[in-house]
Amino acid sequence: MDMCLAFRLAILLTPMISLATSSDDVGFIYNGFRSANLSLDGIAQFTSNGLLKLTNATHQQQGHAFYPHLVNFMNSTKGSVSSFSTNFVFAITSEYPTISGHGIAFVISPTMGLPGALPSQYLGLFNDTDNGNRRNHVVAVELDTIQSREFGDINNNHVGIDINGLRSIASTPAGYYEDGSRQLRNLSMISGKRIQVWVEYHGLEKRMDVTLAPFKVSKPKSPLLSTHLDISSIVNDEMYVGFSSSTGSIFSSHYVLGWSFKMNGEAQELTLSQLPKLPRLGPKKRSRLLTVGLPLILVSMILVAVSGVVCFLRRKMKFAEVVEDWELEYGPRRFKFKDLYIATKGFQDKELLGAGGFGRVYRGVLPTSKLEVAVKRVSHESRQGMKEFVAEIVSMGGLHHRNLVQVLGYCRRKGELLLVYDYMPNGSLDNYLYDQPKVTLNWVQRFRIIKGVASGLFYLHEEWEQVVIHRDVKASNVLLDDELNGRLGDFGLARLYDHGTEPQTTHVVGSLGYMAPEHTRTGKATPCTDVFAFGAFLLEVACGRRPISQSPTEDFILVDWVFSYWCKGDIVEAKDPNLGSDYVTEEVELVLKLGLICSHSEPEARPSMRHVVQILEGDIPFPEISSLGLCSSGLTFTHREGFHDFGMSYTSSTDKRFSHSSAAASQFSGSR
Ligand SMILES: Nc1ncnc2c1ncn2[C@@H]1O[C@H](COP(=O)(O)OP(=O)(O)OP(=O)(O)O)[C@@H](O)[C@H]1O
Ligand SMILES: *[C@@H]1O[C@H](CO)[C@@H](O)[C@H](O)[C@H]1NC(C)=O
Ligand SMILES: *[C@@H]1O[C@H](CO)[C@@H](O)[C@H](O)[C@H]1NC(C)=O
Ligand SMILES: *[C@@H]1O[C@H](CO)[C@@H](O)[C@H](O)[C@H]1NC(C)=O
Ligand SMILES: *[C@@H]1O[C@H](CO)[C@@H](O)[C@H](O)[C@H]1NC(C)=O
Ligand SMILES: *[C@@H]1O[C@H](CO)[C@@H](O)[C@H](O)[C@H]1NC(C)=O
Ligand SMILES: [Mg+2]
């Protein structure tokens, strides 16, 4: 019981498994030589990973490794040599690919180690005096890699069977017969590749077989070398078994990776997967790794680093912004360009809402708040006036009115300003008015929009803490929210350009047909110029036509056109035909007439937005205006001379600004 346990422990603790099927029949297996107890001499050694390294890269040396116990070769019953078999894996590495040091031999010897033997061509087996001596009692299977003509070697890559001397009794070039083929496949033993060897002695038939195969090719059925041989007169009853190897003038190393041996039976098969790994191949390979691999690795590392830096810089450039000290106080009004970029999916064309005089407008969804916004990209080269303008935009963030498009904030980049507004799902009003729109608005909707825009503009002019002049009132700047409320957008934006890029040219900004004549003359925007534009807007909405349209035949001026209807005494005829019959005559008339008086060329003659709101709400009656006589004298509106002569008076002129309304006004007092 105790012995059994100890035996099992031995099996578990060492990779070397010694087995004895009967008391005499020695058998062992080494799947690698880690902690193996072989007897080494010469320069043989075990490597740390369990290789048996018979020689290391040295000149004129030999190495031996022997199983440390005697092996009984005599069949006690019959008095003849028993059968035995052995299987091992070896590899020879050399400093040159085509020549190497000498080979390796499997030896059966009366002594452990081979005292007096020489290296080089003697393979560590014999010396020049005892070579061939019958008293040697040595049987060896040589795997010779050098052709020694003195011993009659057939070539420099052969397998031979040696009895007491190096002149082989049988030899053949190294190779193997693939199963099912009589074709010999060569095997180079100095390739550094692992090669399996089987040596079998058949005691009854007195035959020795030697078989080679590349690593991981199973044992071929036909041996490479098979020769009739009676070794009973050569071997003693008890012998040692092991390996011998030698180097000559070329650096080479001989390795044995695994070994099994069995007396009276078939040697156990090696477990190839458990065998230790060979060291990475010789200096040649290593230098290749250094000369080709290292630079390659370095270059690719540099490439990766450079492309990383380029990526980083490009990303940084892509999202670069301009932030100056004075902006810091605007913190929450300042948007990150990256956020806007993400919101608008990289300013994709798909998200483009439209383009106007200042730049393109994109729809977007802010990444964190998921708020829908409209982002306007205004290209702006000059930094002049930027500070004031940004201050104004930021302060306009404080404007809250149901008829204004809320300004959410801004972002600044080199040569570019981005403004962020609330998104208006129904787009701008101009889309519903001219050029056979897909959807038109009925009168109730239009009148509500007009009143809304009027109250929004009134808020800008008078109801907020400071006077804000819109400067660009027009149908395309009136946006419709989800309830079709009219909301004024883009207020104050024209200012950015008013501050002027080139001081020498007074840059007047506004849209054709909406610019008050005095605005064009002086370049100065006032609440009165906004009222003028609002007048043009009223006519636009009621008539469904642009304030000015140019055709090859003639220029159409909406104010003149409406005025001509007024003169004919039927101003309502000027209404948009798309309205059909579903409208309130009084309201249409009111809007058209209000549009006309707002378009008065004399700023003093225009009502204020406060009045406009009051008139539209019906809180005060429409001012009495006399048009008789004017019409007969063929006067026209706006830009034409003589328009000043047209006058009007307001029945309730409570507003201070109305008291301005010119001397001319009295001329035309009285009702129609
Ligand atoms: N806040 C918004 N929500 C939804 N759509 C908008 C918004 N702002 C602008 N748009 C759309 O973008 C288009 C272009 O606007 P933009 O203000 O650039 O040009 P514009 O109003 O025609 O001219 P201007 O440059 O004189 O204002 C508008 O016609 C409108 O359809
Ligand atoms: C070879 O082995 C011997 C003995 O183990 C050692 O002294 C020698 O330095 C080794 N040479 C090389 C090149 O590894
Ligand atoms: C190894 O073998 C030697 C020689 O036979 C022997 O003296 C020694 O005890 C053995 N050691 C082990 C650990 O087996
Ligand atoms: C050795 O003897 C045994 C019986 O002890 C026998 O079975 C076997 O075949 C013999 N082997 C040889 C090679 O003579
Ligand atoms: C040759 O080897 C034998 C042992 O095998 C030894 O006795 C003899 O001295 C050696 N001869 C020389 C010249 O080394
Ligand atoms: C094998 O080796 C022999 C002799 O060295 C040579 O003649 C033959 O061409 C080789 N065959 C192959 C397939 O390399
Ligand atoms: Mg606009």
TrEMBL record:
Could you identify this protein by its name? non-specific serine/threonine protein kinase
Q: Which organism is it from?
A: Hibiscus syriacus
Give the reaction(s) catalysed.
L-seryl-[protein] + ATP = O-phospho-L-seryl-[protein] + ADP + H(+); L-threonyl-[protein] + ATP = O-phospho-L-threonyl-[protein] + ADP + H(+)
Q: Which InterPro entries match?
A: ConA-like_dom_sf, Kinase-like_dom_sf, L-type_Lectin-RKs, Lectin_legB_Mn/Ca_BS, Legume_lectin_dom, Prot_kinase_dom, Protein_kinase_ATP_BS, Ser/Thr_kinase_AS
Detail which positions bind ATP.
K376
GO cellular component: a single term? plasma membrane
Q: Where are the transmembrane segments?
A: 289-313
Q: Which SUPFAM superfamilies match?
A: Concanavalin A-like lectins/glucanases, Protein kinase-like (PK-like)
- Recite the UniProt keywords alphabetically: ATP-binding, Cell membrane, Glycoprotein, Kinase, Lectin, Membrane, Nucleotide-binding, Receptor, Serine/threonine-protein kinase, Signal, Transferase, Transmembrane, Transmembrane helix
Q: How does it sit in the membrane?
A: Single-pass type I membrane protein
> EC number(s)?
2.7.11.1
CDD domains for this protein:
lectin_legume_LecRK_Arcelin_ConA, STKc_IRAK
